[in-house]
């Protein structure tokens, strides 16, 4: 048996017996749930996180991610199956390293792989034969093969598929989703050599119900980018329809609800104040950037991004129209924004359209306050705002209540009854039996 086959056999045996030591780099919305899931089934997991506050919270079994219960975190911490550190010193002792670091965009909408490259270099300095490295961060097709592999091989002197194994398995985390979790969401796994593909799929099979192997790391990378591009394009389509319906004095929600009664050939998508989170506003632009390498223009992606980025400005314009009709000048308007998180029932404000809307309104010198049961404060250009207490007086004295995030714990019927005017960007009031004259839908 060749050395590489023996290395593969030994790693497979460790994974099967749960004696493999797993490292998770990045303990955020993807990394922490993954680390806890692996620790719960018996793997010894080391979380590596540069944010010292997060490391302290993990060590004290205090969850800061909604999808990870404090009880589950306490269980794996006290059992000794999960620990956390800020350094890479123990990487050589690990058998599997899963990388879940941010992959942001620059202001020019080009990929910023600083975190991926930095972590890869740290791993490469300590890489030994028999280790598996998987990248879960969303990125453009080619990152694993063209960026990570050369760094790993150059610094370590080892070879992928022979000495170590390298794969891409894009995260599919949907924060706040109670039905689909890390365990029961189909997991795509791809690698550019058969041994890496085999061992990475086997590793993920230990805790995830269904594995979907693909032929290469590039294919796996493109799967995730396409998933989010699909959503971005369809959201942009209904957002553009909302702006057209506004011009035509039609109710876009009525149109979409009726269209979605067709039992075939259509899929429900609804407009909103913009798109938020890490995925939809950012990921499609990775593909747009990569396509230029092949002299190919991705027109749908560019147009979808343009339309979705325009929505906060459209909401601002609609807010001022409502106030003008009420005879309230922008500089004297008191506006209550309901929700600043990018998605309901979360505390996550990443790329939140509500923040963009508030920024626009503050530039117009509006007297603006906000309420969010999950977000205590936000900072916009050195100005910190704090969530107010949602009292009858706060609602009644606002010239306009702007629903930017549709948190489910809010009594929207009561809100509409007490408000002077409501701009609903999420359609959450459209089926309420309330005074519709007060409500303007997006």
TrEMBL record:
Record bears the keyword Chaperone: no
GO biological process: polysaccharide biosynthetic process
MF-aspect GO terms: NAD binding; oxidoreductase activity, acting on the CH-CH group of donors, NAD or NADP as acceptor; UDP-N-acetylglucosamine 6-dehydrogenase activity
Superkingdom in the source lineage: Bacteria
Keywords: NAD, Oxidoreductase
EC number(s) on file: 1.1.1.136
Domain UDP-glucose/GDP-mannose dehydrogenase C-terminal positions: 336-431
Enzyme class: oxidoreductase
PANTHER family: UDP-N-ACETYL-D-MANNOSAMINE DEHYDROGENASE
Family: Belongs to the UDP-glucose/GDP-mannose dehydrogenase family.
Name of the protein this chain belongs to: UDP-N-acetyl-D-glucosamine 6-dehydrogenase
């Amino acid at each position: 048996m060749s050395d590489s086959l023996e290395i593969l056999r030994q790693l497979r045996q460790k994974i099967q017996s749960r004696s493999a030591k797993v490292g998770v780099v990045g303990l955020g919305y993807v990394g922490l749930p993954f680390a806890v899931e692996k620790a719960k089934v018996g793997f010894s997991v080391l979380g590596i996180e540069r944010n010292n506050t997060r490391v302290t919270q993990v060590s004290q079994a205090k969850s800061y991610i909604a999808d990870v219960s404090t009880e589950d975190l306490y269980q794996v911490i006290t059992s000794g199956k999960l620990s956390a550190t800020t350094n890479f010193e123990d990487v050589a002792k690990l058998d599997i390293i899963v990388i879940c670091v941010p992959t942001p965009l620059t202001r020019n909408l080009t990929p910023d792989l600083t975190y991926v490259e930095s972590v890869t270099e740290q791993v490469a300095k300590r890489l030994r034969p028999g280790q598996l490295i998987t990248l879960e961060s969303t990125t453009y097709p080619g990152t694993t093969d063209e960026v990570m592999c050369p760094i790993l091989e150059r610094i370590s002197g080892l070879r992928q598929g022979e000495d170590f194994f390298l794969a891409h398995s894009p995260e599919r985390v949907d924060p706040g989703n109670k039905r689909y979790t890390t365990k029961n969401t189909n997991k795509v796994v791809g690698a550019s050599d058969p041994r890496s593909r085999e061992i990475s799929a086997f590793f993920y099979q230990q805790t995830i119900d269904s594995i979907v192997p693909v032929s290469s790391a590039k294919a796996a990378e493109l799967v995730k980018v396409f998933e989010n591009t699909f959503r971005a394009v369809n959201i942009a389509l209904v957002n553009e329809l909302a702006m057209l319906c506004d011009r035509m004095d039609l109710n876009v929600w009525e149109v979409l609800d009726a269209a979605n009664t067709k039992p075939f050939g259509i899929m429900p998508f609804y407009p909103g104040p913009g798109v938020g989170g890490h995925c939809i506003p950012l990921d499609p632009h990775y593909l747009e950037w990569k396509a230029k390498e092949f002299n190919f223009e991705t027109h749908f992606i560019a147009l979808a991004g343009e339309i979705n980025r325009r929505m906060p400005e459209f909401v601002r314009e609609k807010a001022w129209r409502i106030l003008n009709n009420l005879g309230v000048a922008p500089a004297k308007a008191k506006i209550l924004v309901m929700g600043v998180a990018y998605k309901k029932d979360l505390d996550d404000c990443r790329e939140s359209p509500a923040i963009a809307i508030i920024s626009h309104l503050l530039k117009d010198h509006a007297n603006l306050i906000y309420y969010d049961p999950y977000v205590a404060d936000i900072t916009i250009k050195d100005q910190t705002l704090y969530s107010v207490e949602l009292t009858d007086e706060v609602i009644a004295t606002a010239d306009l209540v702007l629903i930017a995030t549709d948190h489910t714990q809010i009594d929207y019927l009561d809100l509409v009854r007490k408000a002077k005017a409501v701009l609903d960007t999420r359609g959450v009031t459209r089926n309420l039996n309330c005074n519709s004259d007060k409500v303007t839908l997006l």
